[in-house]
Amino acid sequence: MDTDDRTTPDPAETRILVAGASGDTGQCVLRALEGRPPTVRALTRSADNRDPLTRLGADEVVVGDLLDPDDARTAVADVDVVLSAVGSGVRTVLTADEFVDGAGTRNLVEAATAAGATAFVMESALGVGDEPASPLAAAFDLFIGPVQRAKAEAEAALRDSPLRHTVLRPGVLTGGPRTGLVQVADPGARLWGAVTRADVAHLLAAAPFTPAAADRTLEVVSNPLLKRRADPIDWLFP
């Protein structure tokens, strides 16, 4: 489907699900959306996170595991937009047979499609996919290869779906406040560097409402040395 066929959601009438809401990037997404028009539902695997996520700005909190298709369907009920910031920890990389980044995200894509959602934004990582990669992205593949492959499968499932989508592939994620000094480019640009989770969260929240981000995969870093490789996008925040 061509990008021109996709409808940009109306922020004032949008219900947003933040998957992976209790993670570092997910919490940044909730902070970014707090006080904005959209109704925000947070998804977490632990009931202990209900009160903290509500304090961060979630209007609703759903407890569930995306590796369970039924939980994924419950999470997306009546949702217009999905912002997925799910990720696997180091211990999971070493021990798990399947990853929330892969099978879990695929379950979420399938559920969102069946529920009639209109847009889906996925946090992925540099080095995912077959495009030419920077040394940093190649290092990601070396050290967390199973997760990178799982993310690639989830990206493919999202692109094959009818959902308007944006895939963000950030570099090394760091703490700290949003800087607004971010470079994005199509895959193969060989971007490298770090980027704050707050900056990535801002793009996750803005992507569904930004026409230029529709149906695209974008590498994301904060590295002024790479300005010439960057694609100037006018990000529209809800």
UniProtKB/TrEMBL annotation:
**InterPro entries in alphabetical order:** NAD(P)-bd_dom (IPR016040), NAD(P)-bd_dom_sf (IPR036291)
Q: Which residues form the NAD(P)-binding domain?
A: 20-207
Name the chain's protein: 3-beta hydroxysteroid dehydrogenase
Q: Which organism is it from?
A: Haloglomus irregulare
